[in-house]
Amino acid sequence: MYRVLYRKYRPKFFADVIGQPQVTDTLKNELRSGRLAHAYLFTGSRGTGKTTCSKILSKAVNCLSPKDGDPCGECEICRGIDDGSILDVVEIDAASNNGVDDIRTLREEANFTPANAKFRVYIIDEVHMLSIGAFNALLKTLEEPPEHVLFILATTEVHKIPATILSRCQRFDFHRISPEDIAERLKFVCQSEGVTIDDAAALLVAAIADGAMRDALSLLDQCMGRSDGHITEDIVRLTAGLADKSHLLKIAEAVKAGDSAEFISIIDVLYKNSKDMARLCDELIEHYRELMLIKTMKQPRSIIVMSESEFEKANEQAMSIPLADIVRAIGILQTAQEKMLRGANRRIEMEMTAVKLCSKGNAEIAAIDPAIEKRVAAIEKLLSSLKELRVQESHSPSHSQSKTMLPKVKRPSSDEMEKLRKNAVPFSRWQEVLDQISQYSPTVAAGFTGSKAYMTDNIILVDSDKDICFDYLRKAELRQRIRDTIKSLTGQEYKLGRYSYPDEKREDDPLSSFINDLKASGVNVDERNG
Question: Which of 24, 246, 252, 334 yields a CA-CA distance of 20 to 30 A from 430?
Fold first, then answer.
């Protein structure tokens, strides 16, 4: 039976792992010196070698004849782990085994000594998918496991793992693999398979893989199936569904010239050739990013992955387009991409984007660009406030002696607050924000315990019955830290505000209703003293 390339060429020794010397060198040193930890945490993006290194480590600690920190790959233990006949190495998918009962079963099994190997090794993949209860059940065993047990945890989202788990593991961060390293590995695989590949094609596959070796090998597998033994750049583009680089250059020229008709005609050609519009939008963002880097960096070639001929054309184009127009294009394209992902008609959205990009000289651009539209609305609101202030001053008896003052910033009125609350929806990621806050200040996180958050437009409203929660929010540095945390999770800027104020008498507030009933019955109530 045919084995796909990423399985066939999965490294069996630390020396074969590509692009992760900060991990492999350290692990080999620990194995040579016998200074093994009881729990390891491997983090990093997909396809960078986390599972591969987990399997190599599980063999190395149990190998009967280790060689310089590497497993020999020939003894019965190494061969047994490779073919799955050694049951002392257990690989668990936390995405489908994430309950408390699953971890309890693991804890019970861990007490038994290994049947064949030296260590009973548990590899828990995507460990961030475990429930809070499962993490708590794992905690004590992870801290003080039996001497014959080794835990290896792997995750792509380390920020979702509780700090109590992180502190009990030896952490290794896997980096994205460089395009040059991926391309060299692809050439080696092609040579082993009796296939030739152009340098430009190998670099293009590496760029598409975005630092993931597994993705690169999967795409190479598809290209081999489409080719006749020689893989070219055109075959890679056709297999991956990419637009030809010449189309991207033509689109950028059409935008520069303000020719929306030419842009839309290119969209029509690509659409008829089954080109996905969301993918086209993504490629255009990447193309304008390359132009931006060329405009702003002294040596952009080191981080831009493309052939020399393509780089010359991109460099020539970048010199002819103002940097402000390039940045503006990226912003409009990213907005279009978000709408496509939310379910908008992709072709129509792409054509609308073409009109927006080509209309930079149009007087109606403020109504087209959302960022400019918001800024104009804010300016109009300020001008309206100043106009009302001048009218009030003109009717004031002491107008001749008064000085023009800007309106004071005050908290929203009760009607405004009710309108905000009516449009607000629960902010589902508030607990993630608090978890990240707890990593640098448990005291501050404790102040927000029991709080809730709601989202409306570009505002996050915080609801809590603790005054200290809002005392923290009044501190500029902490407030900015919370906003930055929210942006890192959502990718958007949000303001912070209160969901309710102490002196508000809301109909849905049980305490306020009770106090009002007491007052109505003639009881004297001092709300300040409870």
Answer: 334
Q: Name the pTM for this structure.
A: 0.61
d(CA 527, CA 530): 5
pLDDT value of residue 395 = 54
What is the rounded (10 degree) CA torsion for 225, 229, 235, 236? Answer: 70
Q: Comparing 441 with 94, which gets the higher pLDDT?
A: 94
Asked if 37 and 170 touch (Cβ cutoff 8 Å), the reply is yes
Best CA proximity match to 185, nearest among 214, 158, 160, 165: 214
E-only strand ranges, 163-304: 170-173, 196-197, 230-231
DSSP string, 55-87: HHHHHHHH-SS-BTTB--S-SHHHHHHHHT--T
pLDDT band at 369; cut points 50, 70, 90 = low
Q: What is the pLDDT of residue 507?
A: 46
Question: Encoding tokens for residue 257?
Answer: 């010239």
SS3 453: strand
**Quick one: DSSP state of residue 95?**
T
Which is it for strands 149-155 and 196-197: parallel, antiparallel or unpaired? unpaired
SS3 492: coil
What pLDDT band is residue 396 in, cutting at 50, 70 and 90?
A: low
- Tell me the CB-side half-sphere exposure of residue 432, using CA atoms within 13 A: 17
Could you give the dihedral angle defined by the CA atoms of residues 98, 99, 101 and 104, in that order, rounded to the nearest 10 degrees? 60
Report whether 452 contacts 430 (CB < 8 A).
Answer: yes
Q: What is the CA radius of gyration of the chain?
A: 30
Instruction: Quickly list DSSP for 413-452.
Output: PHHHHHHHHHH-EE-TTHHHHHHHHHHH-HHHHHHTTT-E
pLDDT band per the 50, 70, 90 thresholds, residue 495: confident
Spatial CB neighbours of 286, under 8 Å, sequence gap ≥ 6? none
Strand intervals (E) in 108-228: 120-125, 149-155, 170-173, 196-197
What pLDDT, on the 0 to 100 scale, is given for residue 130?
92
State mean pLDDT over 500-504. Answer: 65
Residue 263's closest CA among 333, 312, 207? 333
CA distance 196 to 286: 28
Q: Pairing state of beta strands 459-463 and 495-498? A: parallel
How many other C-beta atoms are found inside a 10 Å radius of the C-beta of residue 116? 14
